[in-house]
């Protein structure tokens, strides 16, 4: 599963996979290997942010308008797409941060 490090507008840092539309971002590319899946997840989050900035209809699961659902170790959190930064976590960083 591809994990993200998200920094919110308030400076809170969250880590976990992000719910897309029908699965987690990057999950459909895992059969290509972890590096390709991370690249695909990064591409997807970039595209989602662009669509949100342009006011286009969402193609992702929205727990609230213009938010994404992040599955952290402490449960699901709705994170603003436009006010947060997203970074794909490398495998060796996942539990060491």
Q: Main attributes?
A:
alpha+beta, 5 strands, globular, three-stranded antiparallel sheet, 97 residues, 22% helix
Question: How many strand segments?
Answer: 5
**Which spans of ≥5 residues are poorly predicted at pLDDT below 50?**
93-97
Question: Judging from the principal axes of the Cα atoms, what is the shape?
Answer: globular
> What is the subunit organization of this protein?
single chain
Main β-sheet: number of strands, strand sense, barrel status?
A: 3 strands, antiparallel
**Intertermini distance:** 17 Å
The H-and-E topology, N to C, reads as EEHEEE
Structural class: alpha+beta
Strand order of the largest sheet: 2-1-5
Tell me the strand percentage band: 15-25%
Counting structural domains, the number is 1
Cα Rg: 13 Å
Helix content: 10-25%
Q: What is the average of the pLDDT values? A: 90
Number of helical segments with 4 or more residues: 1
Walkthrough of the structure:
The chain is an alpha+beta fold. The protein has one domain (about 5-95). Helix content is about 20%, strand content about 25%. The strands form two sheets. A three-stranded antiparallel β-sheet has the order 2-1-5. Strands 3-4 form a two-stranded antiparallel ribbon. The radius of gyration is 13 Å and the shape is globular. The two termini are about 15 Å apart.
């Amino acid at each position: 599963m591809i994990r993200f490090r998200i920094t919110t507008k308030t400076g809170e840092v969250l880590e976990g996979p992000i719910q897309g539309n029908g699965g987690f971002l990057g999950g459909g590319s895992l059969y290509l290997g972890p590096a390709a899946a991370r690249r695909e997840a990064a591409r997807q989050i970039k595209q989602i942010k662009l669509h949100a900035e342009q006011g286009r209809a969402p193609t992702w699961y929205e727990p609230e308008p213009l938010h994404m659902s992040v599955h952290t170790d402490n449960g699901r959190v709705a994170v603003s797409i436009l006010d947060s930064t997203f970074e794909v976590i490398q495998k060796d960083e996942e539990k060491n941060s």
